[in-house]
Amino acid sequence: MYAHDELDRVLVNERVTEFRDQVRRRLSGELTEDEFKSLRLMNGIYLQLHAYMLRIAIPYGTLSSAQMRKLAYVARRFDRGYGHFTTRQNIQFHWHKLADLPDSLAALAEVGLHGIQTSGNCVRNITTDQLAGVAPDEIEDPRIWAELFRQYTTLHPEFSFLPRKFKIAVIATPQDRAAIKIHDIGVALHRNAAGETGFEVMVGGGLGRSPFIAKVINPFVPRRDILSYIEAVLRVYNQYGRRDNLFKARIKILVHELGVAKFTEEVEAEFRQIRGGALALDDEVVADIAARFSYPAYEKLADAPPELARAANDERFSAWRRNSVARHKVPGYAVVTLSLKPTGGTPGDATAAQMETIAGLADRYSFGEIRVAHEQNLVLPHVAQRDLPVLWRALDAAGLATPNVGLISDIISCPGLDYCSLSNARSIPIAQELTRRFADPQLATLIGRLHINISGCINACGHHHIGHIGILGVDKNGEEFYQITLGGRADEGAVLGHLLGPAVPFDQVADVIEDIVETYLDLRQAPDELFVQTVERLGVTPFKERVYATR
Amino acid sequence: MPLVKRGTIVADEFIALADDAPAPDKGAVIVSAARFIAEPEVWLGRAAPLGVAWPNDRDVTELVPYLSRLALIALVFPKFRDGRAYTQARLLRERHGYRGQLRATGQVLRDQFLFMQRAGFDAFDVVKASDAEAFAATVARYSVFYAPTGDGRITVFRARLMAAARPAAVAAGRSGS
Question: Which of these CATH numbers, 3.30.413.10, 3.40.50.720, 1.10.260.100, 3.30.420.10, describes A142-291?
Fold first, then answer.
């Protein structure tokens, strides 16, 4: 956990005071809605179809149990008793009143939480691997870097009015669990032959109406220079990014239009000017941030304790353990994913009562620490393996042990037309119906790893382009239709999915997905050939033929 | 539009010259970038302070040969959310060492004052009188700064290291006395 110090707390409180004044000026009519819009957006506040939505930053997806309890309090006191965890490791509340927003933010500030830069055309919440600090193959904890980036980009005087929003993700493992290649900047920590650490920098990834996979512009920026390098990228973008067309304003379009070579040249020229300046990260600065992260006092435990062997007879426990429990770097410990994808539920939603249960379980079994995964699940990162059976029973009782992590019903979805004013079509009912169709754990296990992503519009908040199966809601003469893509992936081998064929109406989507899955089960070469591998091997044609044969 | 300098509302000593207006014999003027770049020596040769209004999509390095002789550069924010002039301001101050007045013009509202000041602006053509009156209070809203700029404010990174070093420094001072 990162320990916020007095300076961090002062800033968050100053922000609440400033925002309270802005709301006062809006309510008194001193500010027009248009003027207020830019200000509320900088605090994560959107005006949606029915109410204000408040998005709270969860830097690099790490939460303390105290923070989780405060989120539960806010859900009950100022919202409708639940919250929605997002693909950017944040949480959002959809039913706030304008007049309550300052008090809600003041309550959150008591535990260091805020909505700063969770919307608006600025650098958004920095995301990372949900297994940061516990992944066995990690070079070092990427949250140290995410925290440095967070501080550097917070209220940045030069980069708070960029052409468009800007997302940065960082990883420190060969396996990419943070989808860095679909970020405006993705950085991957490496160690070179001399044993020094530095960052591979990728720029220009993003989804939306023009999806791009990020391109590497520098294979190794020394750690001392990484903030300077990021500033160089942001400065080039702030000056040259398009501002004439909202849909062409992201950095991916600038990289595309200039070409990677020319863009890289601009960045490198700027970098040469500022390298070694005020942003140079002396070892003592990095060490100071690193020292603010505390790690659990793990017990000396052995892997595979007798408690696990005894529980293995319980088929429900074993099914859950197979897909919800991952390796931890410390022997005798495990990483537990809590599925927020119950059958018939809204992906990513958690009730206040569930949040409180999770906070209690984190205190008891995970050293008070919780993570948010970009797949819209939660994670208890430090669970002793001997505690897994008892933890499972508690999670099961709270509806948090659906054994579907990484499987077909572990669906990523945006809120869609049920909440969002940008949306063309509903997302949540599609997700809910699919979780019912694939509710049988044996069927889901038979199918194996398969990611479905649903977006209610071309803005792609549900990351449909990089779903193994992507579902995109479109409007056809006032009716909800859905385009299906196959074969996308967001990991280290990130690619965009291929369009299956003509869009299908709302009530046929689940049938079409069933047809696609059946086709896969018929065509796969072996039970361990994943859906995405079959699509890669055969292309979309056999799926297309099957789906449209009868439609 | 009230002009704010050194935290208070002041009278503007410059006159903004329209592109078709003849140059007056005396008095401080602000001319457009196009007009200035066409005949810089003519404008700089006048016996009065000169300002240039510079658009936010034109490279400020064009101004570098003249910076020491310019009394004012006006940068523009055509919309609240168009932030190009923040970069221009920092480049002028921090890279090219410009020391004259740097004036924010256009859609200049209360909630940008601190960002503008941190980027190097020291004069503000404020849209609303109520915002201009609130200037001093507004730029004092924050006492904590993460990103380093040329404004000299101590960043959090540095403040922490200084705080960490302080007990040792105090101890060293004591042993020396």
Answer: 3.30.413.10
